Amino acid sequence: MLVLLRSVFNIIWLLWNSMLINVIQVSTYYLIRPFDTSLYRIIMGYVISFSITLFLTACSSTIQALWIEIASSCFPKTNLTLCGDIPTDPSRPIIILCNHQIDSDWWFLFQMARSAKAAGNIKIVLKEQLKYVPIVGWGMRWFEFLFLRRRLDHDLQHIRDYMQSLIHDEFPFWLVFFPEGTTIHQEYVEKSQLFAQKQGRPKFEKVLLPRVSGLQVILDAVDAAEPDIYDMTIAFPSYSGEIPTTEMGYTRKCDTEIPSMKTLLARRSSRKPIWIHGEKFEYQYVKKDLQNFLDTRWKAKEELLQHFAEHRKFPNSDSARNVVLPASKSIVLKLWIGFFCLCVVLPFVTLSFLPLYTFWVIYCFIYSIFDRTTSFLWPYLLQLIETK
pTM here? Predict the structure, then answer.
């Protein structure tokens, strides 16, 4: 009962604060995006000084990074062990490929980006139905995540327009893409193996056969930027290779320490570290023969996961580093202060200031007719500054 109450409280708390974020998003979307999409993405995505985000959050966080901090306050602190090639430069665009074991995979990739001060750079490829989920889905839509119908005839032009827009604005996106298309279940493994046999491609036990067409369109669309490609493999505590059925959902009988979004909200997830292994590849190398690249990398993932199931760590992980990411204790307070300033203080100041300034301008105009001097306060100050 206590666990249920805690989960309900965390969900309500997360949704309520997400609604405040939605208000900020809507204001930014309609006030700034029609005039400057580049500035809109800066505000939504990453750090900008002396901007609207500074006023809203009283810190250098951005709206997307702010939401991640808010969500982190609802979940247990994240404990990551990072090994191999891990992206650390938030100024460069990259594409992140990853296996998809459970519904919380995206959260730990966000946390990895958060450790590199790049939480605002993340853009996730998702199925279109998710953008209609109230509050959270709306937020993802305003954060400009890439939503696909999984119909190439529709998605082709949409992907091109989306990626070209990011490149045109020189936004350093970290695009997260799950080539398997869905989380792993026994029924999907069987379908994947049958399809692989027909296509003459390798069959896997611990991952699903990666899809090629969607990623090929994305790579073609980012040809002008040539982002580096990072192949990431996630492994969770207690992982033994167990694959649930669709009826089981995201629960496991043996691998009980694999955290789902449900267990994260209930704060019942394991305190043991989540392992993330990365390998970096150049854009042209990946694009040259994408199907062969994906088949080779997913075979390597199968071996990595088998090694992890046996040894509880990835091979050659002596140089792995542990990263603990606690939630900011003051971030929610900053959000509420920012929301109060946006919705109460700013309108009050604006409504109070404009009539006074209008009266002052009229008075100075009438006075200047007789005195022939420039007495408009703000124009006079600006003129004085320019002169100096």
Answer: 0.76
